[in-house]
TrEMBL record:
Residues 304-369 form the Cas12f1-like TNB domain. This is Transposase. One of its GO terms (molecular function) is DNA binding. Residues 398-424 are annotated as: Disordered. It comes from Halobellus salinus. Coiled coil: none annotated. NCBIfam families: guided_TnpB, IS200/IS605 family accessory protein TnpB-like domain. Keywords: DNA-binding.
Length: 424
């Protein structure tokens, strides 16, 4: 077993569908939606998640393994994000198309044509296929053609979906040869503490804490609360379609911002010697016992795993590995003396009852995460005699309050006390 992480990429294509098969594919995405809805419904009724795939597959007019992929995605969505809405409300079911997720060589297939195109065949319904050729950027087509002809890339699941009324296929491929550097070969550990309105980073080497940064993003919290109120209002008025629109807008807004934040985390990490980014494994926490109100609130308030996933994905393309640690006590432990008690923390202030050390509490947590990461990599934990000043970076206000622009983020991105600008 190697510890190295494989490089995964999603390739996006437009579908040039042969003949009049487009409606067949659209019908299948509607069927995928009802599979999604039924899955959410059963899960809410408390049905064991292990038996849901078979129960749903019995009624669904889709290829069986495709149904299973869609069920798995719906359960993943519940687990990750919208199920844990601000007030603990389960996500509601919806209308409209849902991506048809399919296994390669089961639910869909690809092949090279004599003309040098890539032909696709998606099993929209049992024994009914949608066929045609893929269109897309040269880079993505190149990788896919390489994947079809060599063992360097492995083709995985794909999603057929409609975007602005155009049929698309998003194909996951894994590079089997190019892997991310082994995390054991790291000389710096970046502890990442993700919160509702910020993310705190600490870079720890064998010499001690190299630097620390807190990226504030109050607008994500603000917008999520605002959208929640709006959705509640239209829900009470029985306007489901508006609610769906709002939810889509909120999702795009949050996703866009989280991509920016994850980009920033990776960029910051790159300044250090062979970094390894370390996250808290929140799933582990949820499965275990009482995880305390702070953790509870965090799970309910931000799509943490989305941010962790985006960061880990972007980092892998910069050859930066990621590691995961158990989040127990990361917010209650004093990074200087190790004294651990819940009373150490008062919102954003940390005040150790043992040694009187004071700190920005999220930064303190990121130090603890880095320390756990160092232990995981089997280094000696360096003595922490002093911690650097906390440096804060804040996203600029996002402009008009009643019309959040999700597709055109502010050009300047971050502003860091006038010293750091990220243009992406
Ligand atoms: Zn202390």
């Amino acid at each position: 077993m190697t510890d190295a992480q494989a490089l995964v990429k999603t390739l996006d294509f437009q579908l040039d569908i042969q003949s009049d098969n487009e409606s067949l594919l659209y019908d299948a995405t509607l069927e995928a939606r009802s599979v999604y809805n039924e899955t959410i419904q059963l899960a809410k009724e408390g049905v064991d998640w292990n038996v849901i795939p078979d129960r749903v597959a019995d009624d669904a007019n889709l290829v069986k393994n495709t149904t299973q992929r869609v069920v798995a995605k719906a359960l993943g969505a519940m687990e990750n994000y919208y199920e844990y809405d601000d007030f603990g409300q389960p996500s509601h079911t919806k209308d409209g198309a849902y991506p048809l997720r399919a296994n390669y060589e089961e639910g869909y297939n690809l092949s090279l044509t004599n003309d040098g195109d890539v032909a696709f065949r998606v099993s929209a319904k049992p024994y009914k296929h949608v066929t045609g050729v893929l269109e897309g950027s040269d880079v993505h087509l190149d990788i896919l053609k390489t994947a079809l002809e060599s063992d360097e890339w492995k083709i995985g699941t794909a999603e057929a979906l409609f975007h602005n009324d155009n049929a698309e296929l998003h194909v996951n491929v894994t590079n089997t040869e190019q892997t991310v550097r082994n995390k054991q070969d790291s000389q710096t550990v970046i502890g990442v503490d993700v919160n509702e309105d910020n993310v705190a980073l600490t870079a720890l080497s064998e010499d001690g804490v190299e630097d620390t940064l807190v990226i504030d993003f109050p607008e994500i919290k603000f917008e999520r609360h605002r959208y929640f109120t709006m959705r509640k209002r239209v829900q009470n008025a029985g306007k489901d379609s508006i609610q769906d629109t709002l939810e889509g807008r909120e999702e795009r807004f949050v996703r866009d911002r989280l991509h920016k934040v994850s980009h920033h985390i990776v960029e910051w990490s790159q300044q250090f010697e062979t970094p390894c980014i370390v996250f808290e494994d929140l799933k582990e926490m949820r499965d275990s016992i009482d995880y305390g109100t702070r953790m509870n609130r965090r799970l309910h308030h931000l799509p943490f795993r989305a941010l962790q996933y985006y960061t880990s994905y972007k980092a892998s393309f910069e050859d930066i590995p990621t590691a995961w640690i158990n989040p127990e006590y990361t917010s209650q432990r004093c990074p200087m003396c190790g004294h651990t008690e819940r009373a150490n923390r008062h919102k954003k202030r940390f005040k150790c009852k043992g040694c009187r050390h004071q700190d920005h509490s999220d930064r303190g947590a990121s130090v603890n995460i880095a320390v756990k990461g160092v232990k995981k990599l089997n280094w000696n934990v360096p003595a922490l005699n002093s911690l650097p000043q906390v440096r804060k970076v804040r996203r600029q206000a996002s402009g008009a309050v009643d019309a959040p622009t999700v597709t055109h983020p502010t050009a300047r991105g971050y502003q860091a006390d006038g010293r750091m600008g990220v243009s992406d």
